[in-house]
Amino acid sequence: ALSLVLALVVKETPYLLFVILASLDQIKTCELIKVGTSMGYTRLTVWRKIILPILYPLIRLPLLVILAFSLTVVDLALVIGPNTPSTFAVTLFHWFNDTDLNQRFSASAGAVLLMLFILFSALCWEMFYQVFIFFDRKRWSNGKRKTLLSPFFHGAAISYLICMLLALLSLIVLPIWAFTHRWRFPEILPSSWSFKKLEQLSPLLLDLACVSLVIAFVSTILALIISIIMLEQKRSKASVNKWFDRFIYLPIILPQVGFLFGIQVFLIWSNNSGSLIAVISLHLLYVLPYVYLTLSGPYLAFNQEYFIQAVCLTKKPFHSFFHIKLAMLKPALFSAFALGIAVSFAQYLPTLTAGEGRINTLTTEAVALAASGERKKVGNMAMLQALFPLIIFMLAQWLPRVWTHYRLRLSRLLQSHLKV
Fold first, then answer.
1. What's the mean pLDDT in 390-394?
2. Given this model, what pLDDT does residue 218 score?
3. Would you say residue 102 lies in a domain?
């Protein structure tokens, strides 16, 4: 169980940090720190008394999403354990897939119980926060320039560095196992290396990678389009998509096992199970909340005056929308796109439920092979599974800085060729 806890911490810390960094842009953190330090408060005290109370409401929903995911995760628990006994979500997964149909009644009841447990955990979390705020509110205005919680903040920073180090070591292990030829017990590193396993698996890996990329790109692009449309509606008519804001997060808050079983019944009834469209649709259900959540802050904080002035000058609303507004939102759009790709690549149960074994991705094959002990095969698949999102994230950081330069350069080249 401790290994699963550690894996969840390593997995969810980058996402939480990503959300926090996106939220900090909305509360003018640098200005708050400058004002606080000019009054004699230390940086940690400014964070403790000013920034954190403002920041928490902005990250409350992502924290609850992480809480719900940790309680319902199946693929990590299948690979890492525990197995004796297994987690409640894994037990429900086995009951739903049992050949004895009577087990599905128990699984359905268990899914409802798991949903109630998630709700109870969220209420306990929020209650603990309210109690903490009630007793801590008086300290916000006590005038003390230093805080006794400085060791806690330093400990949190050290813990974060440890998590990142573990994540880096995990990534390093993947190519080691992928290219290992012989690795005997007492040796620290493999005694010989080989590309034979990669060559043997290359047709399968190419096929799985293509399917994974198609599903990820299509579902993420659709999620971006839907998010932009709904956020534009929210800006103009805030009351129009209140229902959208309320229900968009249900797929990532509800237990995957029970939620996907109901969708599987619908797919079988509509004769759409096992199709690529069904897999993309289920991926869209889980990619859309993350993309919408990542994009909503920067999109709603955009200064609309730039767009209004562009429309007044050009008289072309669509041209101004794409070439001015979306161009200025490039960093947020690329970040949301990269996160959507990563979320799609990580989907195991949605692919298994909608694909019914006919459509396989790198994730489904890696989880299936994890229990077989074939570490070289798992290393190759997991390496590709981690490599593609990593490349997309690197491009998401690099492309916004050079996009305009290369676009203008390409436009000049095209104009010169047309004149010739």
1. 87
2. 94
3. yes
User: What are the tens digits of pLDDT across the range 122-131?
Assistant: 899 989 988 8
Give the closest residue to 217 by CA, choosing from 331, 128, 342, 316: 342
Name the domain boundary from 154, 178, 202: 178
- 169 and 286 in a single domain? The answer is no
Task: Clarify whether residues 398 and 264 are in a common domain.
Answer: yes
Range of the domain at 97: 1-178
- The SS3 call for residue 397 is helix
Closest by CA to 254, choosing from 122, 377, 373, 128, is 122
Contact 369, 378 (CB under 8 A): yes
| Structural domains counted in the chain | 2
Residue 331: is the preceding peptide bond cis (ω within 30°)? no
Residue 340 counted as domain residue: yes
Domain assignment present for 40 = yes
Residue with tokens 């040796």: 187
Residue 55 to residues 18, 25, 59, 104: CA-CA distances in angstroms?
A: 13, 10, 7, 42
Comparing 36 with 224, which gets the higher pLDDT?
224
Name the pLDDT band for 147 (thresholds 50, 70, 90).
low
Predicted TM-score (pTM) of the model is 0.81
